[in-house]
Design goal:
By secondary structure, the protein is of the alpha+beta class. The chain is built from 19 helices and 13 strands. The radius of gyration is 27 Å and the shape is elongated.
Length: about 350
C-alpha cells in the first residue's frame, strides 16, 4: 500500500490532487487483498509524464501507465466521457471535480476513493450498497448498460465473485436485452469469464446464467458443474458455441481434460498419455483423491516415450520395416504393455517380444 501512497504524494507535491479509486478501495472495505490499483487525479497526461519519467501516455484515454515494482498502475485524469463508439469512449473532456469523475463510472461499488492518508471517500452511497450487498448502476440502467454491453458481464462478475445480488433494474434490463451480450467481443467475454472463474464465482455465475437463459447469448452451454481451482478445468466442463481465443496448447489441454470427464475415470494409460497435471485437474472434478493419482503416477514404469528402452529406428531395423503407420502401431503397443506391466522395460525383453 505504501508504494501506491507514494505515487499520490508525488502527484500532490506538484500541486495536484490524487486518489486511489475503485476496485482496490472496494476490496479494502470488504477485507479482500487486492492489487487492482487505479489512481485518479486532476493532473493531465502531459503533467503526469513530467512527474513520472517512466510513464507511458495514453492520451486518447486520458491516462498514463506507471511501473511500480514490475506492476503497471493506471493513472487517469478526471474526465467526462462525451460519446461512445464500439463500447469505448471516443470523445472525452478533462475536468477538475472528483465527484463528476465518479459519476461516469459503472457501478456505485466502484466509486469509492482513498486519499493519501488512507481516508475512504464515499460521495455516491457506495458503502450502503456494499453493506446491502447489492450492485447498482451509477446512472440510469438503460444508459449505463446500453452504452457499453461489457458492463453486463462486469455486473455478473461482481455478483458472482463478491457474492452480491443485482439490483432489480439490472436484472430486468438483462432479461429484456440478452442479445446485447452477443455484441461483446469473444476476447472481452473470455477476459471477464476468466476473472469470474479465477475468483471462485463459477458456480454462482452458472446458476444465474441457466436461471436467466443467457447461455446462447454468452456463447456456451453448461450442464452439471463441479467446482475446480483450474481455469481450464472450468472451460472443460463447458460446451463452447463461439470460438473463444485460446492458444493451441490450451485447446489441446481442454480437450484432454474433457475426454477424461466424459470417460468418468482415470487409468494408467490415461495418466501416461495425458500426463500428471491434466489427470489431476480431471480427478479434482471427478472427485478422485489427489493421492490416488499421485500414487498411480509414481508407480508407472515409464512416464513418457523417451523412457522406453528402445528407439523407433531400432524397431525398424529389427523388423525390417520402414517408418509409417505400422511402426506407430507397434510402438504404441509396446508403450501400453510396459505401462500396464505386461512387458518389462528392458531392451532384451522388448526385442524378444518384437521377434515373437
Amino acid at each position: 500500500m505504501n508504494k501506491y501512497i507514494e505515487i499520490l504524494n508525488r502527484i500532490e507535491k506538484e500541486g495536484f490532487v490524487a486518489y486511489i479509486i475503485g476496485g482496490y478501495v472496494r476490496d479494502y472495505l470488504l477485507g479482500i487483498e487486492s492489487e487492482d490499483i487505479d489512481i485518479a487525479t486532476n493532473a493531465t497526461p502531459k503533467d503526469l509524464v513530467k512527474i513520472f519519467k517512466n510513464a507511458i501516455a495514453l492520451e486518447e484515454y486520458g491516462a498514463v501507465k506507471v511501473k511500480v515494482n514490475n506492476h503497471l498502475i493506471d493513472i487517469t485524469t478526471f474526465r467526462k466521457e462525451l460519446s461512445y463508439k464500439g463500447s469505448k469512449p471516443d470523445k472525452i473532456e478533462y475536468i477538475t471535480s472528483l465527484e463528476e469523475d465518479l459519476k461516469r463510472r459503472d457501478f456505485t461499488i466502484n466509486t469509492l476513493a482513498m486519499d493519501r492518508d488512507g481516508n475512504v471517500i464515499d460521495l455516491l452511497d457506495a458503502r450502503k450498497d456494499l453493506e446491502n450487498k447489492v450492485i447498482r448502476t451509477v446512472r440510469e440502467v438503460d444508459v449505463e448498460l446500453m452504452e457499453d454491453a461489457s458492463r453486463i458481464l462486469r455486473a455478473l462478475r461482481f455478483m458472482s465473485t463478491l457474492n452480491m445480488k443485482l439490483d432489480e433494474k439490472i436484472v430486468k434490463f438483462i432479461d429484456n436485452n440478452k442479445e446485447l451480450l452477443k455484441e461483446v467481443s469473444v476476447n472481452k467475454r473470455k477476459e471477464e469469464l476468466d476473472k469470474i472463474f479465477i475468483g471462485k464465482g463459477a458456480k454462482r455465475f452458472f446458476d444465474y446464467v441457466k436461471q436467466h437463459d443467457l447461455e446462447e447469448a454468452l456463447g456456451f452451454r453448461i450442464n452439471d458443474y463441479k467446482d475446480t481451482t483450474s481455469l481450464l478445468g472450468v472451460y472443460a466442463q463447458m460446451d463452447l458455441i463461439d470460438d473463444f481465443p485460446f492458444t493451441k496448447q490450451e485447446k489441446m489441454q481442454i480437450k484432454e481434460i474433457k475426454s477424461l470427464l466424459i470417460k468418468g475415470r482415470i487409468d494408467k494409460i490415461d495418466l501416461y498419455q495425458k500426463g500428471k497435471n491434466i489427470s489431476l485437474v480431471a480427478s479434482d472434478i471427478l472427485g478422485i483423491e489427489k493421492k490416488e493419482i499421485n500414487d498411480m503416477y509414481n508407480s508407472l514404469p515409464v512416464h513418457e516415450a523417451k523412457d522406453i528402452n528402445i528407439t523407433a529406428e531400432e524397431v525398424c531395423t529389427i523388423l525390417n520395416i520402414k517408418p509409417g503407420e505400422e511402426l506407430g502401431s507397434i510402438m504404441k503397443s509396446i508403450e501400453n504393455d510396459i505401462v500396464l506391466g505386461k512387458l518389462e522395460n528392458k531392451k532384451e525383453a522388448i526385442i524378444n517380444r518384437l521377434k515373437r
